[in-house]
Amino acid sequence: xxxxxxxxxxxxxxxxxxxxxxxxxxxxxxxxxxxxxxxxxxxxxxxxxxxxxxxxxxxxxxxxxxxxxxxxxxxxxxxxxxxxxxxxxxxxxxxxxxxxxxxxxxxxxxxxxxxxxxxxxxxxxxxxxxxxxxxxxxxxxxxxxxxxxxxxxxxxxxxxxxxxxxxxxxxxxxxxxxxxxxxxxxxxxxxxxxxxxxxxxxxxxxxxxxxxxxxxxxxxxxxxxxxxxxxxxxxxxxxxxxxxxxxxxxxxxxxxxxxxxxxxxxxxxxxxxxxxxxxxxxxxxxxxxxxxxxxxxxxxxxxxxx
Length: 306
What we know:
The chain is an alpha+beta fold. The chain has helices at 5-70, 73-79, 88-103, 136-143, 187-194, 228-235, 271-274, 276-305; strands at residues 107-113, 118-121, 149-150, 154-155, 162-172, 175-185, 203-207, 213-215, 240-246, 249-258, 263-270. Strands 1, 2, 3, 4, 5 and 6 form a 6-stranded antiparallel beta sheet that branches. Strands 8-7-11-10-9 form a 5-stranded antiparallel beta sheet. A hairpin with a 2-residue loop joins strand 5 (162-172) and strand 6. 25% of the residues are buried.
């Protein structure tokens, strides 16, 4: 049975409306998704690089302090003294360490260690029998005497806070006579980074070169090197962006490296959240399409009938 001319016209117009609005919904959705992702990635790259620069600047301040202390005549005078606890020379050099400690909020201790003894501010009695030569920071600076060395983050036994140690060799001529060190609390730094608002429910992370999460919304302090996206990040030598599955969902990850301490700063976004705006617009266009179809059908039906 052939359709009447009326239903042919109505069907053709409805088909044109459906094709036109469906194409509009698809094209606009793709454009919005691409633009949203591009904008977020660009903003994240800027933010991640800024955080990386902030951390580098933060550490550079303490590097300068260690270099100045290591080149001071006072450390040479203390080394050439008897180095007996609470002696006049001990009290004099301890005052310099205390001044350095009072000048830097994040520092929990400054110290100077030799194979024979260690002076530390603030003092604790256990330091009198402490063998610094067994510690990695002492060994690293002994083997690399011309630059400041940074340890991997660790939990300080006395405070339970994340800490990092910076150290530098003290030399008499070309001979290493001891190691100057500083312990830094990372709590202020990690809290600041954890509280960064990324938008689209994104979140920041920091991992060290072993894959331990220094900053993470749920896994801070845990080894996450087995996660596929962490393996990909650690395998890269420079800043980059990548797409990877996390808990079965596709995510966009923007990250930057801090080579001097082996940290990676990253911003992670669930693609579902990035595409939420485009999906919402697509749904709105779908609803509008239905309304237009109903109105078009009713208008054509009565107009052609007349």
